[in-house]
From TrEMBL, chain B:
InterPro entries the record matches: Anti-sigma-factor_SerPK, HATPase_C_sf, HATPase_dom
SUPFAM superfamilies linked: ATPase domain of HSP90 chaperone/DNA topoisomerase II/histidine kinase (SSF55874)
Entry annotated with the keyword Nucleotidyltransferase: no
Pfam families: HATPase_c_2
Top-level EC class as recorded in UniProt: transferase
Keywords: Kinase, Serine/threonine-protein kinase, Transferase
Organism field: uncultured Armatimonadetes bacterium
EC number: 2.7.11.1
Name recorded for this polypeptide: Serine-protein kinase RsbW
Histidine kinase/HSP90-like ATPase domain mapped to chain residues: 25-152
């Protein structure tokens, strides 16, 4: 049975910065979509990527693992992965796992873009 | 106290809890179904919003763990199934996530001992379960597969 993916990943560019808008749930089923979107951006030459989490209502260890992978990969390219607008719930997951220390998190997209880099 | 029929199983503790059982194929697209079921069970038990979300994520992690083991183990006999049994008791919810996959026990290693960026997602899942519920027990099953038992207490329980 083919089940509909409960995650939408929409890429766009803002002033030369690559942005991924996520909507829905990032779990073991949908996370490969996110992984592929990040790989595509990196292979396309992006060094600074912003992931908008405002409309993500569920994020599990698979999703966290992909975000960690993205942070490492972009750092190697001299760039950065920035996360925008996680809910209180997801912020709590970042905190209890200690991942808030390695994720670069911004409240709004404007703040993340203002942090510079393309 | 009513007489018990011979052979009637008595749950540990002597109480007769309400049990909700769901069996899903051990495959990524079904984990969402397990999470929805547990959301329905936990949200009727006097847990706070955050506690319900904690339980939902912990159960999702237990299922994901089973799926990852199958993906890594490749036992060649198909993906198997996962049974999620929720025991509803006063002040306490115990969820047994049992996979029938023929693979060994979950990684429940010492994830906390290392920097978080070096932890792989499977260990991250085990770490989340430890943090999100009050008790976690992981046992390999004699016939293959793994039983993960998650217990969460309500504040007043």
């Amino acid at each position: 049975m083919e089940t509909a993916m409960n995650l939408k990943v929409s890429p766009r560019a803002v002033d030369g910065t690559q942005v991924l808008d996520l909507e829905g749930e990032v779990d073991v089923y949908t996370a490969p979509l996110l992984r592929q979107a990040i790989v595509d951006l990196v292979e396309g030459g992006a060094t600074h990527v912003l992931i908008n989490l405002e409309r993500v209502d569920y994020l599990d260890s698979t999703g966290l693992g992909i975000l960690i992978g993205g942070v490492k990969r972009l750092k190697e390219q001299g760039g950065a992965l920035r996360l925008v607008g996680p809910s209180a719930r997801i912020t709590r997951i970042f905190e209890i796992t200690g991942l808030n220390k390695i994720f670069d998190v911004y409240a709004t997209e404007r703040d993340a873009l203002a942090a510079g880099g393309r | 106290m009513p007489d018990e029929e011979p052979g009637t199983p008595v749950p540990p503790g002597g109480e007769d809890p309400g049990v909700v059982t769901l069996t899903i194929p051990c495959a990524p697209e079904y984990v969402g179904t397990a999470r929805l079921t547990i959301l329905g069970v936990a949200s009727r038990m006097g847990f706070s919003y955050d506690q319900v979300e904690d339980i939902r994520l912990a159960v999702g992690e237990a299922c994901t763990n089973a799926i990852d083991r199958v993906a890594r183990g490749g036992n060649g006999s198909g993906p198997g199934s996962i049974t999620i049994r929720s025991h509803v008791e006063t002040g306490r919810l115990t969820i047994e996530v049992e996979d029938h996959t023929g693979n060994g026990a979950a990684a429940d290693g010492d994830a906390q001992a290392r920097p978080v960026e070096e932890i792989d997602p499977q260990e991250l899942g085990a770490l989340l379960m430890e943090i999100l519920v009050d008790e976690v027990a992981v046992e390999p099953l004699p016939e293959g597969g793994t039983l993960v038992r998650l217990t969460k207490y309500t504040a007043e329980g």
